[in-house]
Amino acid sequence: MIGEPLVRREDLRLLRGKGGYVDDIDLPGVTYMAAVRSSQPHARILNVDTSAAKAAPGVLGVYAAADIEAINGLWPQHLAHSSLKMAVQRTLPVDKVRFTGELLAVVVAESRYQAEDACELVDVDYDPLPGAGDLHRSLDLGAAIHEGIDDNVAAHFTQSTGDVEAAIAQAPHVLRETFTMTRGGGHSMEGRAVAARWDPALDQFTVFDATQVPHQARAQIATVLGVPDEKVRVISPPDVGGGFGPKAGMYPEEILVTWLSKELNRPVKFIEDRYEHFLSCYQEHRQEHSVEVGYDGDGRLLGLKDVFLHDTGAYAPSLIVPLIAGTTVPGCYRIPNIHIEFRAVFTNKVPCNAVRGAGRPQGVYVMERVLDHIADDLGLDPVEVRRRNLIQADEFPYNVGLTFRDGSPLTYDSGNYPGLLKMGLDLFDYDHQRDLQRKRRAEGVYRGVGVSIALEGVGIGPFEGATVRVEKTGRVTAVLGAPPQGQGFETTYAQIVSDGLGVDPDLVDVVTGDTSTIAYGVGTFASRVMANAGPAVLEAATEVKDKLLRTAAAMMEAAPEDMEVAEGEVRVKGTRIGVAIAEAARLANAGAPGVNLPKGVVAGLTSTSYFNPSSAGYSASVQACAVEVDAETGEIEILDWVVGHDCGRIINPLLVEGQVIGGVAHGLSNAMYEESIYAEDGTPLTTSYLDYPIPSARELPRLRLFHQETPTPLNPLGAKGAGEAGTLGVPAMIATAVEDALRPLGVRIHDLPLSPGVLGDLIAEARDRGPGAA
Amino acid sequence: MTGTQTVAFVVNGEPRSITVEPRTLLADALRTDLRLTGTHLGCEHGVCGACTVIIDGRPVRSCLTFAVQAEGREVETVEALAGPDGELNSLQHRFQQHHGLQCGYCTPGILMSLTSLFRDNPVPTEGEIRDQIQGHICRCTGYQQMVDAAVEEATTNAGEAR
Amino acid sequence: MKPSAFTYHRPANLSEALETLGRYQDDAKVLAGGQSLVPVMNFRLAAPEHLVDINRVPELSGHEVAGGTVRMGALTRHHELLSSPGLRAAAPLLPLVGPFIGHPQIRSVGTLGGSLAHADASAELPGAMLALDATIVIRGPSGERRVPAGAFFRSYFTTALEPDDILTAVEFPVRRDRQGAAFREVAARHGDFAVAGVAAVVTLDADTDLIADARIAAISVADVPVRLSAAEDVLRGRAPDPDVLGEVRTAVQDVLDPPPALKASAAYKKRTTAALAAHVVERACAEAKREAA
After folding, report:
1. Neighbours, chain C (3 or more CB pairs < 8 A)
2. Which residues of C touch A275 (CB under 8 A)?
3. Would you say B138 and A521 are in contact if contact means Cβ atoms under 8 Å apart?
4. Residue A685 is nearest to which of C262, C264, C265, comparing CB atoms?
5. Is B61 on the interface with C (CB under 8 A)?
6. Out of B81, B103, B136, whose CB is closest to A486?
7. Rounded CA gap, A614 and A502, in Å?
8. Sheet with B74-76: strands ordered across
9. Nearest to B92 among A15, A190, A696 (CB)
10. Looking at the partner chain, which of C2, C39, C43 has a beta carbon nearest the beta carbon of A112?
11. Could you report the average pLDDT of every consecutive run of 10 residues in chain A (774 residues)?
12. Given A20, A164, A606, C248, which residue has the most CB atoms within 10 angstroms?
């Protein structure tokens, strides 16, 4: 079944409106939590007066920092790094607020409407402090956002290979440019959502959490509540309305909802609304990359130095975004000398954490822009410059010389970048596109072509686990620790079990994201689950098959190696003689009380496997597009678009296609549409979809998609990851194509995202400079 | 009155009566009072389209409609689409075949908008399909596969009309 | 994002609606399509104590074309601008503007009167009313008033309407012979509020084919929609050749002083509005000739 385009079983309930998202779960007696959030980007908290709110109709309780001391100690650092300074974070801030939207107090009431009414009655006195809405202002702020970190630098990290200074000093050509890019939020259509109930008989919490990382959420909640992990059961429901990274973070609402369910002895629910998503859900902010690149007269890269600033917002739960951005820069190109250095800077904005791509789109954009500039400088075709620098298909494993975010050497496992590029250019018909461009230019139309190649570190560890068991009904259950947010786990993992065990995939039930069903799990992020949980599932299924064959063989007094699984039975090979799987399972899983199992029957047709990869694998993508730009209005029209993708072995091509196209849409949004904008002091200016455009079906052009499969040697499935590769190359490609279209005017693009207004002004400036001035 | 008010309307073909505050959004009334949780709230300001239902034959944002406004109206939600035994209708089936949904959160609203389109125009062009669903945000799919599903529906309708 | 509590009123006719508004004055808001009001209430940026739902007031619905005048009831839904053949013939500008007003689901319920009364400076219909030379019909406690569109819009979200008034209809002249219309806008996404947008209605002289009269209106360049009179003056008695269109651009650039928006500078809005103006004039002239042919 691996490799088959099976349609999804999940769809049956989702299409009928019978999904079970957190807010759909029927919790008798449920109460509603709403949030009082900071209206200030940076201010001392003088007083929080909750008295009027407490007296409001329907209110069960109002809680500020003073009311939750039991759960308001310092939070553990989410993901430590040697260069990351410890910044204080608590469930609710005690002394000051550091971003507009920071949670200050919560109200629990009988309805969400009443809870919001009472939130308006909470009176907060602030003493405003100077705030920083961007990197540079923060570095010059003269006020510490976190006490003891006076320069507002959360981390300063450098890594290098070779001798970049010498390489650049000796290079025949040197390029120095600065490229900046701002991304935005996750904008899953379902916001964050968490509901908890407390069982007094067991003193146990059940937490329904639309999280990408249920086991991590359990650890965080248990730690902050000061209870053992076993007292907290976190369930990421089978239906979560998208994740895209931000739902892999830890949030105070998860702690509060859980704790309050016991305080009030009522179920408590928090549903993040869209306004709160803009204000309080993790985003990716600005990066500013200053590159120095040495190259020879043929356009071959000799040395690359990238020093960048990363805006980490008001807290730095981790450094994954800048770490990944930096290690993504070298991409699929041979660069003998590399120096990557960044400073992560605190600002008074919602904290930064990974959003689909997680720093990679920025890294790809930097490298691809560098290659375009080299092509320009040397008068070469930009594709030819890329071709000359590509790592070749026979060079794997290829060690870049840096360390990836997973702690392992940045070593590419497998791939065929020249092959992927060629397939892409052939499908795109690159030469024809260049002809068309010349023709349209002669007609006075600004038409351009953009090509980008992107590598994505995927399938990072530490591990993922799975249990597979044969039930006495004859059905098979596969339990995963990692939860889906729309990826179709119930279908794809059934395909793997089907191959491992030899049963029809329709007989396999996939259970996900419930900490009570599997001891350990890491979570769904970084395009990692298939490369971790896939091999675990396959191994567990294979082991269970072995137990099943041995059990059936014993029942039939045959040899296990003579048995096979077929049509719901375990049979003697090549015959129709056998026992039903259900029968074998009834014996092996239950037997008869007090009676010994027959010799050879394996007790318990179940197996649990954990798979830990030795390092990340690397998926690749190539994209090419043709655009036309209206030089008067700055509007961009995409006329053709080809995407090629290599994520190793494909388990379900129908679903991978969906992942790639969806990723591409996110990338296009980052290139041309969405952008979180803040005032100088950190006040957010884009807090609704009226100011924050996400493209619709009108904006998304039709893509032409193709696949290359270079299986990874890092796991027995050969699968890499498909969740983000579509996103990565789009901003780079759009910048390249638009710059190419406007070459007659000399427009240069150094900052993304574009908008008609931004591009229109760039065009006007170029026209003012006059032709050829660029 | 600011207290509560009784609203009598038809939901998915059945007369229903609920008692709500006037400020109760139709989406909340459907989800909470009638337990029709297929209608989702994604932005509550009329842009994302997840909450779209059909009222008196036209696709409407149920987050921008107060339940009291539905008095005497006919409301259709995603729960009305499948057959009595839960079998998917033709459009739903095509969404599954083409992988037109991923997380599924935006899907009910999109299905309702397309249902309304196909009633008015059984053979829309791809452009008309994209125009109709431009009022929806899907963050997962990039729309292409759901557009393919709707195009196939239109193509089949055209064949049947011939 | 749940609205504050309010008292709900559903008058059965216009006099009852006016009476209710008169009683509560500033504490009351009219609920028409609700596609602008309800979002603002959900964000709790507005919390009216009384909502007067006029959706079932019969006097406010429907449109008619009679005696050289088009009369459109305030409750005309945006989708009707696209679907009514009568309107299409009498006011070709409206089906051109219609597709840019929000999205199909918004157009199902959003109303003409609501859009004008809301008076968002970047909305399409207020600009269209200027280009159509429309008259806004208002009923208040002292009877009916008729206000030219140019005098109706006062500032951001502010109009000639008093708290106890209801906008009942708009009226404008039926399309004349050799008259063409065009509309174009730039927005972040299709259907979003305009960053820049221009509507034009141009009438050609029957004998000379030169421009006899042009009405051009821009949106999103000031606190109210703006008539581009200087450009109209340039065009009178002339043909839309490149030189003249160049003059139109200059004339537009000279008079505008738009406020910047997020990701659209004042200079961008000025330049783009000028370019759109030239573009729609050219297209409207072509339409006028096509209709005549």
Report:
1. A, B
2. 1, 43
3. no
4. C262
5. yes
6. B103
7. 28
8. B14-20, B5-11, B74-76, B52-55, B58-61
9. A15
10. C2
11. 97 98 97 98 98 98 98 89 88 97 98 98 98 97 94 97 98 98 97 98 98 97 96 97 96 98 98 98 98 98 98 94 97 98 98 96 98 97 98 97 91 97 98 98 98 95 96 97 96 97 97 96 94 96 97 95 95 95 96 91 96 94 98 97 96 97 98 97 97 97 96 95 94 98 97 97 94 54
12. C248
Which residues of chain B make contact with C101, given a CB cutoff of 8 A? none
Please answer whether residues A267 and A200 qualify as being in contact, where contact means their C-beta atoms are separated by less than 8 angstroms: no
Whether residues C44 and A120 touch (CB distance < 8 A) is answered with yes
Neighbours of B159 (CB within 10 A): 9
Tell me whether residues C195 and A756 touch, CB distance under 8 A: yes
Residue to mutate among B24, B40, B66, with most C CBs inside 10 A, is: B66
Question: How many CB atoms are located within 10 Å of the residue A226 CB?
Answer: 10
Residues of C in contact with B59 (CB under 8 A): 104-105, 108
Q: Per-residue pLDDT for C292 more than 80?
A: no
User: In this structure, what are the phi and psi dihedrals at residue A61, rounded to the nearest 5 degrees?
Assistant: 180, 150
Q: If 0-12 CB within 10 Å is exposed, 13-18 middle and 19+ buried, where does residue A333 land? A: buried
B142 shares contact with chain A (CB less than 8 Å): yes
C-alpha span between C10 and A657 (Å, rounded)? 51
ipTM above 0.90, yes or no: yes
Chains touching chain B at 3 or more Cβ pairs under 8 angstroms?
A: A, C
Contact C55 B131 (CB under 8 A): no
| Closest CB from B39, B105, B143 relative to A190 | B105
A671: its two tokens: 């290139």
Cβ atoms of residues B66 and B7 within 8 Å: no
Q: Which residues contact A128 (CB under 8 A, 6 or more apart)?
A: A40, A42, A43
Query: Residue A297 CB: number of other CB atoms within 10 A?
Result: 9
Tens of pLDDT, residue by residue over A75-89, are 988 888 999 998 878
Q: Residue C265: list chain A partners with CB under 8 A.
A: 757, 761
> First and final CA of chain C: distance in angstroms?
54
Give how far the C-alpha of residue B122 lies from the chain's centroid of Cα atoms, to the nearest Å. 17
Where is A126: in which H helix or E strand?
Answer: strand A123-128
Rounded Cα gap, residues A509 and A118, in angstroms = 44
> A297 in contact with B at a CB cutoff of 8 Å?
no
Q: Which residues of C fall within a CB distance of 8 Å from A699?
A: 189-190
Question: Quick one: B89 exposed, middle or buried, by C-beta within 10 A (0-12, 13-18, 19+)?
Answer: middle
pTM: 0.97
Helical spans, DSSP H, in chain B: 26-28, 90-97, 107-120, 126-133, 144-161
* A→C interface, C-beta within 8 Å: 112-113, 116-117, 120, 273-275, 632-635, 673, 675, 677, 685-686, 688, 690-691, 693-696, 698-699, 755-758, 760-761, 764
Q: Choose from C198, C252, C262 for mutation: most chain A CBs within 10 A.
A: C262
What's the average model confidence in pLDDT over B61-87? 97
pLDDT digits (tens, 9 = 90+) for A636-685: 999 999 999 999 999 999 999 999 999 999 999 999 999 999 999 999 99
Label the pairing between strands C63-66 and C28-31. unpaired
Token representation of residue B78:
């995603």
For A577, other C-beta atoms within 10 Å of its C-beta total 11
Helix H or strand E segment including A62: strand A59-64
The answer for residues whose C-beta is within 8 angstroms of residue A394's C-beta and 6 or more apart is none
Q: Chain A partners of B135 at a C-beta cutoff of 8 Å?
A: 696
